[in-house]
Amino acid sequence: MNHTESANRAHNTNDTSYPSQYLLLYLIPVIGFFPSLWTLYHKQGSREKLSVSRLSVTLALTWVMGYILLASGTASLNSNLFAVRLLILNSFFTSSYFLVSIWLMLRISKNKYKGLPGFSQLADQILGKYLS
Length: 132
Fold this sequence. Notes:
The chain is mainly alpha-helical. The protein has 5 helices and no strands. Helix content is 80%, strand content 0%. Helix 3 (47-75) crosses helix 5 (119-131). The termini are far apart.
């Protein structure tokens, strides 16, 4: 095998993993929201790419809304005990967002991505109307 054939093989193996690297980028917690929104706004990419982008945007917006609501509830309370409970709930909510994103990234890296039951359909219905 000469140098050109080995370079072509290396190039072909990189082509198959290239789209999954983009999908992994979209699911990075908080940061992946921006390339996902860009992809949806420009309506570019495959069906799977758009689906992962919609899911990423929906997860991020859900997390931001929940975080803001729990934080504002904590700030407006006079009772310290209830405020601490809301802060703990807020930390569980944030941790679960990060864990779900990492779990989805692992599923994509193993080529077993099927989306999140219920949440993917919600993302397709809500964001599918406006951004795709």
